[in-house]
């Protein structure tokens, strides 16, 4: 589904990713971990097309398409979604309008008609209920005045409505209490399927108690230094990252 080959990325003249390789197949959940500054968030931002990142060499393909040649909206229409660590506020734009516009843009890209208003309301109310959010959130401006946990739930709500093929979630667990983390994790797990992939960027193993990954990768100085199954995350929780850093430098 996603293939990243020998990716080199610079930000303001500093090289952040230094030859990163990653493959995510359909139905797989991958967790990306590592110390601060290793490049975890950079990878998902580059895949999504966020400004400020320069790809100096390497390639990214998604379902056989060259991602780096696609505009941001084309990536979204193709099924790529980035859930932000710090979701932005959009004053004056109601949640419900954003969700409907985004969903219809996806449908138009697939050659489908706009969703009928009753069908849309049924869909969105179902997802709001699943995320244990009040329907009043739909009439509020996107993330404006939301708490940290509410913003994260709202990110997952968008994901559940849009049903991306590859969801990239950048530290979606930061700032969440236990109850909110369970709700967010349930939302993410509901997306799992044979035709979808998920990339989780996280510092903490606790999220992976709720969303059990197929593969865990440790990023050190812009490269994946170690990969394993969910047990690797538990080992990192008990031992920290120093041993992986030392092994990668040896």
TrEMBL record:
KW S-adenosyl-L-methionine (keyword) present: no
Gene: ynhD
Signal peptide: none
Family: Belongs to the ABC transporter superfamily. Ycf16 family.
UniProt cross-references to PANTHER family, sorted A to Z: ABC TRANSPORTER I FAMILY MEMBER 6, CHLOROPLASTIC
InterPro entries in UniProt: AAA+_ATPase (IPR003593), ABC_transporter-like_ATP-bd (IPR003439), ABC_transporter-like_CS (IPR017871), FeS-cluster_ATPase_SufC (IPR010230), P-loop_NTPase (IPR027417)
Matching SMART domains: AAA
CDD domains: ABC_FeS_Assembly
Annotated transmembrane regions: none
Name recorded for this polypeptide: ABC transporter ATP-binding protein
Keyword Chaperone: no
ABC transporter domain residues: 2-246
Superkingdom of this protein's organism: Bacteria
PROSITE patterns to which the protein is assigned, alphabetical: ABC_TRANSPORTER_1 (PS00211), ABC_TRANSPORTER_2 (PS50893)
GO molecular function, one term: ATP hydrolysis activity
Record Pfam families: ABC_tran
Keyword vocabulary terms for this entry: ATP-binding, Nucleotide-binding
Gene3D superfamilies: P-loop containing nucleotide triphosphate hydrolases
């Amino acid at each position: 589904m996603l293939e990243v080959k020998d990716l080199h990325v610079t930000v303001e003249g500093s090289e952040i990713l230094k030859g990163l390789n990653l493959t995510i197949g359909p139905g797989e959940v991958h967790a990306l971990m590592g110390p601060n500054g290793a490049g975890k968030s950079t990878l998902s931002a580059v895949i999504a097309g966020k400004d400020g990142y320069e790809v100096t060499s390497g390639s990214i393909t998604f379902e056989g398409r060259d991602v780096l040649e696609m505009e941001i909206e084309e990536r979204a229409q193709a099924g790529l979604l980035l859930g932000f660590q710090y979701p932005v506020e959009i004053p004056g734009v109601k949640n419900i309008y954003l969700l409907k516009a985004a969903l219809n843009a996806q449908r138009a890209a697939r050659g489908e008609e706009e969703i009928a208003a009753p069908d849309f309301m049924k869909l969105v109310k179902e997802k709001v209920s699943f995320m244990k959010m009040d329907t009043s959130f739909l009439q509020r401006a996107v993330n404006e005045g939301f708490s940290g946990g509410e913003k994260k739930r709202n990110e997952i709500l968008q994901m559940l409505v849009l049903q991306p093929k590859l969801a990239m979630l950048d530290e979606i667990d930061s700032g969440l209490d236990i109850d909110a983390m369970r709700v967010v994790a349930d939302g993410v797990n509901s997306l799992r399927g044979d035709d979808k992939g998920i990339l989780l960027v996280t510092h903490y193993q606790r999220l992976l108690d709720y969303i059990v990954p197929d593969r865990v990768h440790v990023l050190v100085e812009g490269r994946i230094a170690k990969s394993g199954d969910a047990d690797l995350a538990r080992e990192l929780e008990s031992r920290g990252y120093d041993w992986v850093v030392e092994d990668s430098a040896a």
